[in-house]
Specification:
alpha+beta, twelve-stranded mixed sheet, ten-stranded mixed sheet, 14 helices, globular, disordered N terminus
Length: 648
């Protein structure tokens, strides 16, 4: 399909960059000399003769609000590549000196031959020097009781081979942005590769390290030719304006940098970012694994990325990983100060960078709540925000057109009208990811919460309707982690779940936003898992389980009554047989449920691939009168009434 196009066509412009401010000849000569000293190690480094500033002619070209490929910039033989170490404001490896982070630069040759100053696209990562292999023997053992002490974990041995020299850290973004007249910057996170310090997985140094690099680009931090000592390196070629992007962990770090409020970070495009390590490893007070990594926790991720200098490994393990082990709390799963410090929503007031957020509605690794909670907070604070969602799994950046308009507007400063574009771009179910549909906002402005109520025997398939009066009685669940959620949804009958479904839809139904579930439940044990899936029925035999899943959620019944169940600081043991009431959000979604389908609410206990695995047999009883789900329906209750009405 051809998507509606809200882009504003503007005249073609050529940005004529004035000669750079007259840095002293001594400073410029020193910079070239230090680059020349490392030329033997950097085979791609081009060192042209110093120009006469008045000859500056080449600059970015803008068409349709986007920076275009310029032939003079696209010749990779003229690119200048060099590396350096930037001094930070922290010391996490305990040596008494500020840690330095390793930085690699790729910039157009015209920054030297014509005196051109350029803006930068920047990606930072803990992954650039390799990671530990995935070995589930070193993950946490899921066989523990809910609320019980976990079995001890066997940590990864510190065996990631340390790379001594790595002048080219990464080539990501280089062929996209250098030909358009940007420099591309890469840096390695603290404690990884050739960066000093310890990896802290969401600690303050992960925010301050990219801040230091941006400060260096603006002349506020010092750069050196070596990790220890070395000659100064200055970014005389930089305008100081920076845009950051990256995916997953690399998408988390642009937001981390933005929370510092660093001057010069003008725009960020986080893709599938982890915005809270609590929400990554916990759900509503419940210990929960990220999808695809059962038993992973924050200390496992420390082991996975720790590729830094071998001589500080013992110190970092003792002062960082052991603290994680002591504070992460796999017994209660509750929020605490350790997790609060690694929740970027708590630092959101520092963010001024214009944010184009990207995520997937079927990302069960870094779940879509991560982007949703941040964009809602930024919109409330008046920060420019757009969001791009697709229907796939983890990762997937916006189309280049969207990214280009964003960086052109906020990094280059070209008034291209992007702030008047639609605020949400959503890839519809059968569409190509490069062809999102524009919407005024996300959630859809016409979406309204519509409560539906379960009734009947949910061990078979009960009903789910608008009529609250139909709800009566209870339903029983026998916990058994061995059954996968897909098996339970497909089963004609099961005592391991309760399933309630709407009538067959007479028309498509558009859901947009966050569904909220209320459950009144009792357990015959002091603690239990609680899982809720919203599914599309009939369940089909598909290679992609996401074809049937609308959204999911998990919660700890012991946190019933918490002021904010999404970040509860204390839970309590359940009194066997006593009902408690929970209300919590499922993961954000935007999905068109096709006519002929039925929307199903499935409630069960342990989720094989996400929760811990207690001994099977715990009995949960759900009071149907106190249980409901509120769906975000575009068109509200009248839209749902129409699709439930039998065809006459």
């Amino acid at each position: 399909m051809t998507r509606p196009h809200a882009y504003q066509r503007i005249r073609t412009e050529r940005l004529m960059t004035s000669p750079r401010p007259a840095a002293t000849h001594r400073a410029r000569t020193r910079c070239i000399r230090t680059a020349a000293a490392t030329a033997a190690l950097l085979p791609l480094l081009i060192l042209p003769a110093l120009p006469t500033p008045a000859t500056a002619q080449t600059g970015p070209v803008i068409e349709n609000g986007q920076a275009q490929v310029v032939p003079a910039f696209a010749d990779s033989a003229t690119w200048i590549r060099h590396d350096l170490w930037v001094e930070t404001e922290f010391d996490t490896d305990g040596d008494g000196h500020p840690d330095r982070v390793h930085v690699a630069v790729t910039r157009p040759g015209q920054t030297d031959t014509e005196g051109l100053t350029v803006s930068a696209i920047y990606e930072t990562s803990p992954y650039y020097s390799g990671v530990a292999g995935i070995n589930l023997d070193h993950f946490w053992d899921l066989r523990q009781e809910v609320g019980g002490d976990p079995p001890a974990r066997d940590p990864f041995p510190a065996t990631i081979r340390h790379i001594e020299r790595q002048p080219v850290i990464s080539n990501s973004h280089v062929r996209t942005w250098v030909p358009r007249g940007f420099a591309v910057i890469h840096s390695q996170s603290p404690g990884t590769g050739q960066s000093q310090g310890c990896p802290t997985v969401g600690g303050a140094n992960e925010s301050l390290a990219p801040k230091a690099v941006i400060d260096w680009l603006n002349g506020r931090a010092r750069g050196f030719t070596s990790v220890d000592g070395g000659e100064p390196v200055e970014a005389y070629w930089a305008t100081g304006k920076v845009g950051m992007t990256g995916t997953s962990y690399n998408g988390t770090l642009p937001l981390a940098a933005a929370t510092t409020g660093v001057d010069g970070l003008e725009a960020i495009i986080p893709v599938a970012p982890n915005t809270s390590y609590y929400h990554y490893y916990r759900s509503n007070g419940l210990v929960r694994s990220p999808g695809g990594y059962p038993g992973e926790d924050i200390d496992v991720l420390f082991d996975f990325i720790f590729s830094g200098y071998p001589d500080v490994r013992d110190y970092c393990i003792a002062h960082v990983r052991d603290e994680m082990y002591a504070e992460l709390d796999r017994t209660t799963g509750d929020y605490n100060d350790f997790w609060a410090g690694r929740d970027y929503l708590n630092h959101i007031d520092g963010v001024r960078a214009a944010t184009l957020m990207a995520h997937a509605f079927n990302d069960w690794n870094v779940m879509p709540e991560h982007s949703y909670r941040i964009t809602e907070a930024l919109k409330a604070r008046g920060v420019p925000v757009q969001i791009y969602y697709h229907q796939g799994g983890h990762g997937g950046p916006p189309p280049l057109e969207l990214m280009n308009r964003w960086f052109t507007r906020y990094v280059l400063g070209i008034e291209n009208g992007v702030e008047n574009d639609p605020r949400a771009w959503i890839v519809r179910e059968a569409d190509d990811r490069q062809q999102p549909t524009p919407y005024p906002d996300y959630p859809h402005p016409e979406a309204e919460g519509v409560p539906l109520h379960p009734a009947g025997d949910g061990n078979w398939t009960g009903t789910l309707s608008l009529n609250a009066g139909d709800a009566d009685g209870t339903g029983g669940i026998v916990d058994n982690f061995a059954f996968e959620g897909g098996q339970l949804a497909a089963a004609e009958w099961s005592n391991h779940r309760l399933l309630y479904a709407t009538p067959s839809l007479q028309q498509d139904v558009h859901l947009s936003g966050v569904a909220t579930v209320r459950v009144r439940v009792a357990s015959d044990a002091a603690a239990a898992n609680l899982t809720v899936w919203l599914v599309s029925l009939p369940w089909t035999d598909s290679d992609d389980i996401n074809d049937n899943i609308i959204t999911k959620g998990w919660a700890d019944p012991g946190n019933a009554g918490a002021v904010d169940i999404a970040s509860p600081r204390s839970g309590a043991d359940l009194t066997p047989g006593e009902f408690v009431e929970l209300e919590f959000a499922l993961q954000p979604d935007d999905q068109v449920i096709p006519a002929g389908s039925r929307i199903g609410l499935m409630v069960f206990s342990s989720d094989k691939y996400f929760t811990v695995h207690p001994e099977p047999g715990t009995m949960l009883t759900v009071d149907l009168r106190g249980t409901s789900v509120e769906l975000p329906v575009v068109g509200g209750v009248e839209a749902l009434r129409r699709v439930f009405r039998p065809v006459s």
